[in-house]
């Protein structure tokens, strides 16, 4: 039986080398691999001439990929494997393809599909409010709902939080995002090549290094550009500083959410220390402007390395 094939991370793979399966084989093998422990990295639809195709990327100890023709409707993978759920919702929204039996089939970002088909969710995008999001509701006389957002008193991304509570006990929380949807995937196809790194850095403010590195590796793989070892080391350091800053910040935010203020304040200060190390590397606390296709824009001097080592030593537990 045809199967998923290995692909290299950060390497260009001709589309012809990615197995094209029947939908039944695609569906069966994807579920079997995930059942054996594979993780879902990506699952998406794309236009190929006048047709629409599906492609999935899974991860075991290597990356595995396969594709198939997209049917107009198909048995939802989510019904047997929850990690597919948001991918299938996005495919339904973008291409009007219905995943039958999806247990949580709701819109993601409120926009008409790319094929001009009837909206899977029954929304009318000519209306000022195009759709009514069907929030999960807990039944009971003593249940009350608390709605928070999408405007928040902070710097987080807009999002609507719907709490179902009984007294002070939170029984269920549903979060609706997508308020800042800008159509970046299409913009990447239309923008001047020089703008692409800047667009990548702006996908998510706290992941400027991660997203700009993904773009750089894609460009390098497609063009055959090789980066030197020094640039790879600097990229790795920047990625680690970004990761640590985000994890420390999240620990502080979790503490603040339960009114445990000492670690909330302490982690917030420590996050600033790691952001300032990134500032030392490139002049921007979030790493913007550092990574570009072909390498990095700022080298590390001997003095920079000594300073970074000293600061990391101060923060060791």
Describe the structure.
This protein is an alpha+beta fold. It has three domains: 5-121, Beta Polymerase, domain 2 (2-Layer Sandwich), CATH 3.30.460.80; 137-181, no CATH class; 184-315, no CATH class. Helix content is 37%, strand content 19%. The strands form four sheets. Strands 1, 2, 3, 4 and 5 form a five-stranded mixed sheet that branches. Strands 8-9-10 form a three-stranded antiparallel sheet, with no helix packed on it. It has a two-stranded parallel sheet with strand order 6-7. Helix 5 (208-223) packs antiparallel against helix 6, helix 6 runs antiparallel to helix 7 and helix 7 (261-282) runs antiparallel to helix 8. The radius of gyration is 23 Å and the shape is globular. The relative contact order is 0.07. The mean pLDDT is 93.
Radius of gyration: 23 Å
Beta-strand content:
15-25%
Identify low-pLDDT runs: none
- Total number of distinct structural domains: 3
**Major sheet size, sense and barrel closure:** 5 strands, mixed
Number of strands: 12
Distance between the termini: 53 Å
H/E element order: EEHEEEEHEEEEHHHHHEEH
| Helical stretch tally | 8
Q: What integer is the average pLDDT?
A: 93
Structural classification: alpha+beta
What's the overall geometry? globular
């Amino acid at each position: 039986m045809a199967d998923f094939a290995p692909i290299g991370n950060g390497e260009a793979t001709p589309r012809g080398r990615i197995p094209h399966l029947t939908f039944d084989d695609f569906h069966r093998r994807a579920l079997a691999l995930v059942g054996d422990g594979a993780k879902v990295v990506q699952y998406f639809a794309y236009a190929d001439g006048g047709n629409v195709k599906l492609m999935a990327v899974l991860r075991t100890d290597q990356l595995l990929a396969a594709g198939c023709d997209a049917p107009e409707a198909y048995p939802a993978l989510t019904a047997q494997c929850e990690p597919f759920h948001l991918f299938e919702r996005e495919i339904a929204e973008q291409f009007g393809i219905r995943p039958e039996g999806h247990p949580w089939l709701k819109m993601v970002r409120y926009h008409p599909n790319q094929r001009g088909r009837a909206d899977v969710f029954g929304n009318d995008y000519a209306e000022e409010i195009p759709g009514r999001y069907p929030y999960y509701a807990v039944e009971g006389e003593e249940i009350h709902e608390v709605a928070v957002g999408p405007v928040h008193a902070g710097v987080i991304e807009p999002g609507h939080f719907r709490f179902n509570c009984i007294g002070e006990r939170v029984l269920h929380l549903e979060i609706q995002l997508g308020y800042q949807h800008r159509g970046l995937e299409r913009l990447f196809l239309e923008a001047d090549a020089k703008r692409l790194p800047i667009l990548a850095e702006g996908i998510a403010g706290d992941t400027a290094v991660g997203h700009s590195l993904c773009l750089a590796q894609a460009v390098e793989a497609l063009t055959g550009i090789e980066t030197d070892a020094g640039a790879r080391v600097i990229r790795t350091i920047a990625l680690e500083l970004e990761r640590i800053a985000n994890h420390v910040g999240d620990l502080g935010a979790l503490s603040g959410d339960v009114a445990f203020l000492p670690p909330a304040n302490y982690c917030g200060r420590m996050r600033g220390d790691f952001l300032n190390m990134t500032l030392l590397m490139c002049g921007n606390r979030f790493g913007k402007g550092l990574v570009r296709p072909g390498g990095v824009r700022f080298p590390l001097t001997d003095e920079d390395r000594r300073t970074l080592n000293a600061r990391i030593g101060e923060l060791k537990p």
